[in-house]
Amino acid sequence: MESKQSQVLETWLKTTNTKLTQVNGQRKYGGPPEVWGGPPPEARCEVFISQIPRDTYEDLLIPLFSSVGPLWEFRLMMNFSGQNRGFAYGKYGSPAVANEAIRLLHGHMLGPCSRLTVRRSTEKRHLCIGDLPASTRQEDLLKVLRVLVEGVERLSLKAGPGIEGVSAIVAFSSHHAASMAKKMLVEAFKKQFALNTSIKWQTVVKPSLDEQLSPHKPSKSLLPPALKPPRHIPSSPLTSAPPPRMVRPPSVPLGFCRSVGGPTVSQHPPPLRSSPSSSQGHLVSTALLHQLCEANGGGQPLYEMYCSHAVPDGFLYFTYKVYIPGITTAFKGLVMVLPGPTAIATLEEARRAAAQQVLQRLYNELAH
């Protein structure tokens, strides 16, 4: 952006007390603005604006589109040089106001050769996650996604000719939530499960898909009853609505770990002396390791957890030492977890991840 244009924009921001936020290649106003009396906008309230001159910014665009009605959000796409990318999104409080913006501002002249294009935004909210293991279960994957990203509402699995493994169609609460998930899920699946997935927009949603995704229909297969986590760790039931923002969803279920090659119920470590009962197969990893030690005449395993570092995508790395009664050498390793709502919950999640690794190593050592 040239210095003169930058000065004009800065002057307008100060004069009008307007605040802009730069995030993920876009500059955003509102979402909601500081003064907003109504509910958040529903579907069909957003317009897509293109053919914006590269030297035109919010000091002209926001007043223009606010002249139709109050803006709930305005997002101008930016490049690294500071120029706009020629398009933006404006969201109003109702579809009627969005329609009026299209009627009044489509073709609006910003200059002698600059005619705006304004049309309905598609607001894509569905992603297709491909290359999942064939044994993936809908309930397990839903829990995994709600741990990794926000805004997951529901999903449906599909398989058939031309589809390698299993694909999942995932519905999100908003286009923004789906966009954020699309940016980070490939890397998250790779880090968490060493799983290479493909993620793309699901552009065509057949009418029958809504029935498949309906939260009112019971799933064909239900998760076996699992041991409830300790009381200080919030648990979230499997529902169609996303959990509250401040409540961390359940940790990654063992069922999904089974699909991608982690320790499972049917393949839990063989007993050192006697096997825990089959009804304990779906315990969380810390409880399973604890009971395995007790069943073989030892006491509780001892965990030493140290927070190593954090990375920009939000994950925390913990180094650990786990001492097993009767085994002289401690198990050491590194685990990666998402922060929980409290420090205690985060530490408990790291313990579960460490216990899962120890169980896998015990199994590998005894299997050979």
Structure description:
The protein is of the alpha+beta class and 368 residues long. The protein has helices at residues 3-16, 58-66, 95-105, 138-148, 175-193, 207-213, 254-259, 285-295, 343-367; strands spanning 20-23, 26-30, 46-50, 71-78, 84-92, 109-111, 114-115, 117-120, 126-132, 152-158, 166-172, 198-201, 302-310, 316-323, 331-337. The protein has a 6-stranded antiparallel β-sheet with strand order 1-2-4-5-3-8, covered by helices on one side. The protein has a 4-stranded antiparallel β-sheet with strand order 10-11-9-12, sandwiched between helices. Strands 13-14-15 form a 3-stranded antiparallel β-sheet, with helices on one face. Strand 14 and strand 15 (331-337) form a beta hairpin. The chain is elongated, with a radius of gyration of 25 Å.
**Which stretches of 5+ consecutive residues score pLDDT under 50?**
205-250, 263-282
Structural class: alpha+beta
How do the strands line up in the largest sheet?
Answer: 1-2-4-5-3-8
Main sheet summary? 6 strands, antiparallel
Radius of gyration: 25 Å
The proportion of residues in beta strands is 15-25%
Gap between N and C termini, in Å?
64 Å
Tell me the overall shape.
Answer: elongated
In helices, the fraction of residues equals: 25-40%
Helical stretch count? Answer: 9
The overall pLDDT, averaged over residues, is 75
Total number of strands: 15
Q: What is the N-to-C succession of helices and strands? A: HEEEHEEHEEEEHEEHEHHHEEEH
